[in-house]
Design goal:
alpha+beta, two-stranded antiparallel ribbon, 1 helix, about 25% strand, globular
């Protein structure tokens, strides 16, 4: 089971059976809120992240 959580909260916003579905849901929420989106693997390590906020010094993002 994959969970979507907001930073600082233990209770998940939503749960999904696949990582792909969880990512889709969490990206929508991050875009809506204008915040950074961070994806963690099952072991807790960060596998990817992207910012949807108004960063005054955005990194050179080659993915999006």
């Amino acid at each position: 089971m994959w969970e979507t959580k907001k930073e600082g909260q233990q209770k998940p916003v939503s749960s999904s059976h696949t990582k792909e579905t969880a990512e889709e849901k969490s990206i929508r929420e991050a875009k809506k809120a204008g915040v950074e989106h961070v994806i963690h693997n099952k072991d807790g390590k960060i596998s990817d992240k992207d910012s949807y906020g108004k960063d005054p010094n955005p990194p050179k993002d080659r993915k999006n």
